[in-house]
Amino acid sequence: MNATSDTGRRAWTVTSLALLLALAFSGCGSDGSTQPPTSPSPHAGCRIYPARYTHVSSHGSSEFTCEFTSADATLTCYGSGSTKGVYQSVADFVDEGAYTGRILKVSDTDTSGSLSGNDYAYDAQRRLTRWVLWYRWAGGVILKRTFTPTAYDDLARPTALSVLFVPPAGTSTTCTATVSYDDAGRSVTWALAADTPPERVASCTVLVNPRTEIYDENNFPRSIVFTGSTIRTQTNTVLGTFQVCK
Fold first, then answer.
1. pLDDT of residue 111
2. Coil, strand or helix: which one is 166?
3. What's the angle, vertex CA 63, arms to CA 212 and CA 241, rounded to 5?
4. Pick from 241, 219, 235: which is nearest to 94 by CA?
5. What b/e string do you get for 69-96 counting C-beta neighbours within 10 Å, with b at 16 or more?
6. Of residues 152, 161, 21, 176, the one with CA closest to residue 99
7. CB atoms within 10 A of CB 23
């Protein structure tokens, strides 16, 4: 089993906010050379997103207010903290909502304290090629968890990813995650690869964060059930919406 420092092990447990940023802002930067498949959404050419929603977890509940600024293709949400999602274009924001679990954004950041965030890179087909989940640790150290897709489905969504964590001291850890999509049921399931060695299951569970994400009819995450060593559920309830069109 790869060894890690105590700091590295503790750091694995503080990434929930960065992960939730990625889920709440689910859409990408692209070079625009390849268009996405035709949207099956009844709002083709437009996206409906929450203007207000409540988020409930084991840590309590809070209400968020969101707005999208077309001039700079930015999605901002305010609540117990503030978050900012950046897109390369309005079209990317709209296209992101066409399919369950697709990511099409440049970055998202916790702007209330810059404690965590996500950065994304894509190829010419607008497939995610790298996702870096970062978070600030003790002493201002920036820790990173890097996801590198190795396989995709026909909608350009990752179905397998290599996950790398490099602690400030000690040996790096690499795991493999699988992702499955149920478009009819609007759900996405993250799991450890079946061939994960038994001695690495515990550490890889923390890195991969196995979970099932359930989305609503506008492909906004309605609930997230984490299925690791401790089952935890987070829910979002939409209180109002706005629409953005290309």
1. 86
2. coil
3. 80
4. 219
5. eeeebbbebebeeebbbbbbbbbbbbbb
6. 152
7. 20
Chain CA centroid to CA 69, Å:
21
Identity of residue 140: G
pLDDT single digits (tens) 126-149: 999 999 999 988 778 889 999 999
Q: Which residue has the tokens 């919406």?
A: 241
What secondary structure, in 3-state letters, does the chain show? CCCECHHHHHHHHHCHHHHHHHHHCCCCCCCCCCCCCCCCCCCCCEEEEEEEEEEEECCEEEEEEEEEECCCCEEEEECCCEEEEECCCHHHHHHHCCCCCCCCCCEEEECCCCCEEEEEEECCCCCEEEEEEEEECHHHCEEEEEEEEEEECCCCCEEEEEEEECCCCECCEEEEEEEEEECCCCEEEEEECCCCCHHHHHHHHHHHCCEEEEECCCCCEEEEEEECCCEEEEEEEEEEEEEEEC
Name the one residue in this structure whose structure tokens are 């990434």: 15
Q: Is the pTM of this model over 0.85?
A: no
Tokens of 218: 């506008």
Question: In order along the chain (246 residues), what is the average pLDDT of each group of 10 residues?
Answer: 37 46 45 39 80 93 97 95 94 95 95 87 95 87 94 96 90 95 97 95 94 96 90 95 96
Local structure of 94: helix, strand or coil: helix
Q: How far apart are CA 95 and CA 16, in angstroms?
A: 26
Q: Looking at this protein, which amino acid is placed at residue 225?
A: V
